[in-house]
Amino acid sequence: MTEVYGDQVRFVFKDLPLSTHPQAFKAAEAAQCAHAQERFWDYHDKLFANQRAMAIPDLKRYAGELDLDQLAFDACLDSGETADLVRQDIAEAESYGVTSTPTLFINGRLISGALPFETFETVINDELARGER
């Protein structure tokens, strides 16, 4: 979205590991550990490409494959230091009534589901037009 709209939009990612995915919470923690090394999006993409392999050894291996500081990453993941960040995101999602992923808010408008980009584009363009009035 930022490629199309530049600084007209702000994209904020929040974790919402669903209980139907037993390893999702630890994977979200791992992504936050990668974020501590400024590599969140690279790690995020690695997780989505490997959704069937998210055991702790896999999560640590991905950090190595991305050339993260392995010792720092492992210590972060083993300590659970990012768990509270993930819990905060879950609480925030629940406060807005979000129960599934993906869910997006565009200027406060909730859009749920894996929809084509054109759907988001329509809403964004509508919101931008409102701002110009």
Supply database-style keywords:
about 130 residues; two-stranded antiparallel ribbon; 2 strands; 2 domains; mainly alpha; elongated; 7 helices
Task: Describe this entry's structure for a reader.
The chain is mainly α and 133 residues long. It is built from seven helices and two strands, in the order H-H-H-H-H-H-E-E-H. The protein has helices at residues 2-5, 24-35, 40-49, 56-65, 70-79, 83-95, 117-132, and strands spanning 103-106, 109-112. A hairpin with a 2-residue loop joins strand 1 and strand 2 (109-112). The mean pLDDT is 93.
Summarize the structure.
The chain has helices at 2-5, 24-35, 40-49, 56-65, 70-79, 83-95, 117-132, and strands at 103-106, 109-112. Helix content is 56%, strand content 6%. The chain is elongated.
- Uncertain segments of ≥5 residues (pLDDT<50)? none
Mean pLDDT: 93
Strand order of the largest sheet: 1-2
Strand content: 5-15%
